[in-house]
């Protein structure tokens, strides 16, 4: 056997091996391509969801700020009302009405003793009164 024949046979074997490898690798490459495409679409979907959540979060933040702004004066008004009630001569405080409700006073008693409106007295009695046993 001459060197040219030997080199030709070796070249053929290398080419056949490369062809076999390509035939074996092609389906694997297609499977990997499909997996890549699937992951890429999943990432795109996740990106859309994150953008949606960011948008919702921003809107929620604005709403919270609006609520805080709208109701920030409530505490100030409540303080002002409590100071007016405390400054009134002979006025009994809401704290005393709450303590009385805790001791068992009903709404009618709270109205009489502390000058609360019917709704206020009912609210204090329900929130701070004794629980009725069954």
Keywords, separated by commas or semicolons:
mainly alpha, 134 residues, 4 helices, 84% helix
> Major β-sheet, in short?
none
Binned strand content = under 5%
Oligomeric state of shown chains: single chain
Number of domains: 2
- Rounded to the nearest angstrom, the radius of gyration is 41 Å
Describe the structure concisely.
The chain has 134 residues and is an all-alpha fold.
Can you give a write-up of this model?
- The chain has 134 residues and is mainly α.
- The protein folds into 2 domains: 1-82; 92-129, no CATH class.
- The protein contains 4 helices and no strands.
- It has helices at residues 3-87, 94-102, 107-114, 118-128.
- The longest helix has 85 residues, at 3-87.
- The protein is rod-shaped and about 125 Å long.
- The chain starts with a helix and ends in a 6-residue tail after the last helix.
Any chance you could write out the topology, listing elements then pairs?
Blueprint: H1 3-87, H2 94-102, H3 107-114, H4 118-128
